[in-house]
Every structure is written in C-alpha cells, then in structure tokens.
Amino acid sequence: MKGRHRHPGSAGFAAIVAALLIVVAVAVAVRALTGGSPAESDANGALPKAPGGSVATGSPSAAPTKEHQPKRGKLLIHGTGDVSLDPSYIPAFRTQGYGWAWSGLSGLFQRDDLTVINLECPATDVIDPESKQFVFRCDPASLPVARRLGVEVANQANNHAYDQGPDGLLDSLQQIRRAGIAPVGAGADQSRALRAATFDLRGWRVAVVGIDEVLDPTYMVAGPDRPGTAAGHDFDLALRAVRQAAERADIVVAMIHWGVELDTQPRAYQVEEAHRMIDAGADVIFGGHSHRLQPLDTYRGRPIFYSLGNFVWPHLSEEGSTTGIAEVRVTPKGRFTARLLPAYVISDGHPVLR
C-alpha cells in the first residue's frame, strides 16, 4: 500500500518523543516510591537472603511502618550449651572432621529459622595463651562447617573466649563473621560487645545478645576503649543491652553465661536476673556455664533455659554428657512455646538426639 512505510512527519515525531518522556518519568517516579536501587539487590535482582529466607542485618534499622507491617509467620529457634571445636581438646575432630560435631542431629539446625550456640573458645590462629588452668583455642576451619550445617549465631560471652588474649578474641570475631556466622557477646569495645545481631525472619525482627557474668580473668570484660566480653558483673549493662535490642526488634534472645559449675539448679540470683531481663524486653533466655543441664522455666509467658549444659564436648561423665537442645516456637500472634529436646554426648565431640 502506498505510504505504508513513510517516515512520520515532524508533528508525529514530536508526539512520539513526548510519549517516551512521559514513560521514563513514570518509571523514575515508581522507582523512587519503591526505593529500588542497585545497592539493595544482588546479581539476580533479589535482596540478599540470610538462612531460612531471611534478610540478615548487622546494624540497627528502622522498624517497618504500621501500613507496611510484614505478615508474620511461625518461627522455630534452637539454642545449645557449650560448644568446643578445639582439636587439642577433642582429638576426634582430627580423624572424623568437623562435621562430626553436628552429624548426630539429623539436620535439625538446617530446618529451623535460627540456631544460637555458645562457642566456648576463641576461633583463631593467634597463639597467646592466658595463664589459667584450662586454655582453649578453636580451629577457624571448623566454622564454615558449622555454618553449612545450620548455625547462625555464635556467642562469645563466656569465660574462655579470651583464652588467647585480646588479639585472639578480636581475630575470633572476624573469623566467625568470615564464615557467615554472627558473633555476639564480645567486641572491640563495650558498645560493640553489647550490640545485638539482628535478623529479619518470616516477618519478625529477631535480635540476639550475649552476656558474660563469668570472668576468668577479670580484665576480659570489654571497656569503653578495651576489647573483651559483654557486661561482666555490671548487670545494668546487661539490661541496657536487652533494652536497646528490644527497641529495634520484635523478639529478643539473650544468651547468658552465669551460675556455678556443676550446679543442677539455678541460684536465686539467676532467677531474679532472668525475670529482670524479661521485664527489660527479653523473650527467650539461653543460659550456660554449669556444665550440667538445668530446668526449663517460664516467666510472663517467656521461656528461661537456665543452663543447657555441655553440647559439643568431651564425654567426661554421665551427668556432663546428658544434655538437651532448647527449642522455641513462636506463633504468628506472638505466643511462645518451649521444650528441651533430649540429647546425649555419646562420644567426644558427638552429641546425638535421643
């Protein structure tokens, strides 16, 4: 047909350009409203995800507005007692590999939303041992294995995290982060030691803090300009850490090293402190240090595991090898239910679900 492939006249061309400008303007406006930017997405155009389909954050961020409150789902959280990944203390790792530590759990930690362990040693190649009876040093090579098998948070708020001095502690925190695990309970100074690790999980913001009341040696606690573990005997600092975490999160998990070795029941002061932490905003308390399993309790509908005993540990006695895994479920409406999953350290470094 005549004129079918004619070039558009000047008026038609101007109309086309105007239309294109309108399309570009609309696209820019939509992008501005949605907040999209290259820095917010990975190479596939999706937000970087933490384990379990969550977005992990290492620093506080604003809570979602009421109009944009995410839909909340069910949460499954696990916590363990003392974990040693020191091949000098548990030689079985040299022959069995570090997967041995987690191989008796049937993939439990890979199926939950969050797993918190108490890492009872610095994971470092720094050798600068403190002068004390028991000095530990975990192998940094063990950490990627722990991460792959479901561990998201490693608490360093304990009396062995400082076993290789301040340089060993700081290197341990870096090694833990490098493996994709969030360290809590220690830092380069007091502020960072008290800081929570936060995770966005199924519509919930979850914060984890670590508190160390067992000082060995006493100068291991972090100061305003000194590296160390969190809080020490200053319980007001512990409460401050909990309150600050509660201001920025929907759920606060506190892991605390406290009490007396070999106790099978909590002391009265531990019960009081647990209640004060919950009053300050804690929702779950995972305790340890006694090397014995202690009872599960509740206060204001929030679970308190006073001591989770040994976990990845040598088989030293029947009492010390009888242990459990803390399991906490949270409903979409914020109701907490908790139980202890029975476990047993069947051989050195090898806990098994019963």
Average pLDDT level: 86
Oligomer: single chain
- Radius of gyration, in Å, reads 25 Å
Task: Identify the overall geometry.
Answer: globular
> What is the count of structural domains?
2
What would you give as the CATH superfamily of the largest domain? Metallo-dependent phosphatases
CATH class of the largest domain: Alpha Beta
Separation, N- and C-terminal Cα atoms: 84 Å
Assign the structural class, choosing from mainly alpha, mainly beta, alpha/beta, alpha+beta, or little secondary structure.
alpha/beta
Secondary-structure element order, N to C: HEEHEHEHEEHEEEHEHEEEEHEEE
Q: Can you tell me the residue ranges where pLDDT is under 50 for at least 5 consecutive residues?
A: 1-63
Number of helices: 8
**CATH topology assignment of the largest domain:** Purple Acid Phosphatase, chain A, domain 2
The major beta sheet can be summarized as: 8 strands, mixed
Number of strands: 17
What would CATH call the architecture of the largest domain?
A: 4-Layer Sandwich
Helix content: 10-25%
Portion in strands:
25-35%
Architecture overview:
- The protein has helices at 10-34, 92-96, 143-148, 165-178, 190-194, 235-248, 268-280, 318-321; strands at 55-57, 75-83, 114-119, 153-155, 182-184, 186-187, 197-201, 204-212, 228-229, 251-257, 284-288, 296-299, 302-305, 310-312, 322-330, 336-347, 350-353.
- With 354 residues, the chain is α/β, with parallel strands linked by helices.
- The protein folds into 2 domains: 1-36; 55-353, Metallo-dependent phosphatases (Purple Acid Phosphatase, chain A, domain 2).
- The strands form 3 sheets. Strands 2, 3, 4, 5, 14, 15, 16 and 17 form an 8-stranded mixed β-sheet that branches.
- Helix 6 (235-248) runs parallel beside helix 7.
